[in-house]
Amino acid sequence: MKRRSGVVSIVLVALLVFTLFTPLVVSASHVHRVDRRYSDARAKYLDTREKYQRFERSDPNQDQMGQAKAYVENVLDYLIAYLEMVKAKIEVLEENGARPRVSSSNLQADIDELEAFKIELEGCETKDEVLEVVKRIRSSWAGISEDVRYCTNFISYYQIGRNIERMEAFSAGMGVRLDALESAGVDVSDLRAYLSEFDRHLESARDEYNTGLRFYEEDELRDASSHFRNAQRHLILANRILKVMVRAYMGMRG
Asked: What does residue 123 show for φ and ψ, rounded to 5 degrees?
């Protein structure tokens, strides 16, 4: 019975790590709905972009005016869908007790600001009026994008940090189990090699994360984002090794 409990414990730890490695979500249905809205909005934006570029270069007729306004509206829908996707993840963190500087309510205000441009766009009757709205959308997005950059870094800071801690705990637990097997006369050299490679990527992830965190705290968000991405890449590599290691361990345990 004791042997079986050891197997169950390592499986539970592995499943926990795999689960925590996935992005933070509110619920599967909500995330699917938000992601689908974003994908649809992006597709419409790309489909009408060329028509708007022709509109900017020409003296448009009524049909081209309609196409240009449709394009700008699709751009707004695309940006709004992206903000909603980021907002959904920030809401999860807030529910878990986090207090980001740019909150979900701040992002909702950004969304409302972009929604207001859609109403203005409906009333445009000339090319100049459309271009003026576009100019103000670009100006508005310059500020909103800073909110987005902060939030995406905050999500990375919170999520990657949590994943590193869980995977470090897994590594320590696996080391104890390998020591026990080795004491019982079992050859665990292959598992030691897996764990060593796992730890190497985990250590690199921790180094990149800590560097990113320093930049994040200094509001150097572009640099922070770069290091967080590097940390995430190392976690992905570590996670691949973890899966192989768990399978090998389970095979050894029978």
From this structure: -85, -5
Long-range Cβ contacts of 34-39 (<8 Å, 24+ apart): 34/81, 34/84, 34/85, 34/88, 35/85, 37/81, 37/84, 38/78, 38/81, 38/82, 38/84, 38/85
Crossing angle between the packed helical segments 221-253 and 127-183, to the nearest 10 degrees: 40
Helix (H, G, I), strand (E, B) or coil at 67: helix
Residue 123: other Cβ atoms inside 10 A: 8
Tokens of 179: 């020591």
- Locate all alpha helices (DSSP H) within 184-220, ordered by sequence: 189-217
Q: Residue 213: count other Cβ atoms within 10 Å of its Cβ.
A: 19
The tokens for 25 are: 């979500």
CA distance 117 to 21: 38
Residue 55 and residue 64 in contact, taking contact as beta carbons nearer than 8 Å:
yes
| CB 38, CB 84: distance < 8 Å | yes
Do the Cβ atoms of 20 and 166 come closer than 8 Å?
Answer: yes
What are the pLDDT digits (tens) for 106-117? 999 999 999 999
DSSP notation for 111-179: HHHHHHHHHHHHT--SHHHHHHHHHHHHHHHHHHHHHHHHHHHHHHHHHHHHHHHHHHHHHHHHHHHHH
Read off the tokens for 62: 């009524």
Give 5-46 pLDDT, tens digit per residue.
444 344 434 433 444 444 444 444 555 567 677 777 677 666
Packing angle of the helix pair 2-20, 127-183 (nearest 10 deg): 160
